[in-house]
Known about the structure:
The chain has helices at 3-6, 24-35, 56-69, 85-89, 109-118, 131-141, 143-151, 174-187, 206-209, 212-217, 259-268, 272-275, 295-315, and strands spanning 40-49, 75-78, 94-95, 122-125, 160-170, 191-198, 250-254. It is of the alpha/beta class.
Amino acid sequence: xxxxxxxxxxxxxxxxxxxxxxxxxxxxxxxxxxxxxxxxxxxxxxxxxxxxxxxxxxxxxxxxxxxxxxxxxxxxxxxxxxxxxxxxxxxxxxxxxxxxxxxxxxxxxxxxxxxxxxxxxxxxxxxxxxxxxxxxxxxxxxxxxxxxxxxxxxxxxxxxxxxxxxxxxxxxxxxxxxxxxxxxxxxxxxxxxxxxxxxxxxxxxxxxxxxxxxxxxxxxxxxxxxxxxxxxxxxxxxxxxxxxxxxxxxxxxxxxxxxxxxxxxxxxxxxxxxxxxxxxxxxxxxxxxxxxxxxxxxxxxxxxxxxxxxxxxxxxxx
Length: 318
């Protein structure tokens, strides 16, 4: 008897396939398919601050030098339309801008494409005074993904894994700390916050050291409490606007480099590596054909980089 004959009903017509009948082989095929699905990773490192001229570009270039020295591939993005200090030095840096204009408000989505296509962390230099715009973009673009992932089970497939870091250049002022705390309370469960004490701006940290609210959120400067969640005086987990437990703040120090070297780096638009090149001829030119920096300047830069890179290394974040 043929399969067609087996499926014939009394009227002689072939039976319609039973679409609601359980077939374990189908589930097996689906499970096999799911197991082959890859999870894309989006890793974003925002460098932010209270306002402009607080060392954000300088810190981005410090991280870029750190990554280059350790052969860690990253994508650089410069979002500063007025003072593109990063892309002026690193010609390969991408450029995109955050805007309230409805026609261009989603242009920063390009950052997500670069992260997923290149499979590399993205280091983003933000200009001053864009906190609200950037927050709005993250809220509507990435927070829903993070919240949905948080609700999935441990073995559930995640289409995209999102990791966001906010490296905040703190200038020692109360308004600067208030902005940092505002961001922390809003999405401190979705974003790992790092307070960067910029010693090139001040050496007075009394505002943060004596702030009672900040003491609840603060973690070790060495990053050994990374991944911990914040608890209040009663031992209860503190949660952000999305009801996710807030991650404990990591603190690091950005050491001071003398103004003379900082200004020259900006004026000549060179990387740290270029500034450190020694002379290779009798007239003091480097291998690039430019005048070598004085030995004492190069030594000051090397000392700065050694301290800064130790701070970055201790975080284990990049």
